[in-house]
Write a structure and sequence with these properties.
The protein is mostly beta strands. Helices cover about 0% and strands about 50% of the residues. It is built from no helices and eleven strands. The strands form two sheets. Strands 2, 4, 5, 6, 9, 10 and 11 form a seven-stranded mixed beta sheet that branches. A four-stranded antiparallel beta sheet has the order 1-3-8-7, with no helix packed on it. Strand 7 (about 65-70) and strand 8 form a beta hairpin. The chain is globular.
Length: about 120
């Protein structure tokens, strides 16, 4: 069982930045870690992912150039830096881990955190 814990959400104004983090109970070497988000009334969608090797990253088109995913192997932590936030980024953000390569589908992830709320005010 891999435990996943998110942190760092909060309330920011449009145009500002926010960092959220995800810490795993296991080494990152075996797990690709993805960030997903879900706004009220909408389906959960993939935001970004970093592969188990750390060599590959992927982003949803709407966040490319604004969000950056990175990881700290020693701390078993994955970070998501979010810049130029808009109201469209308001959602509950979830971190998830899976054994193997990144996937855009939430159903392919076995281990999930409880989520951290990101709210962007205009």
């Amino acid at each position: 069982q891999v435990h996943v814990v998110e942190s760092g959400g909060g309330l920011v104004q449009a145009g500002e930045s926010l960092d959220i983090s995800c810490t795993l109970s296991e080494s990152l070497d075996l797990y690709s870690v993805g960030w997903f988000r879900q706004a009220p009334g909408k389906q959960r969608e993939g935001v970004s992912c970093i592969s188990y090797s750390g060599e590959r990253t992927s982003y949803q088109n709407s966040v490319k150039g604004r969000f950056t995913i990175s990881r700290d192997n020693a701390k078993k932590t994955v970070h998501l830096r979010m810049n130029s936030l808009t109201s469209e980024d308001t959602a509950m953000y979830y971190c998830a881990a899976r054994y193997g390569v990144c996937s855009d589908s939430p159903s392919n992830y076995r281990y999930w955190g409880q989520g951290t709320q990101v709210t962007v005010s205009v």
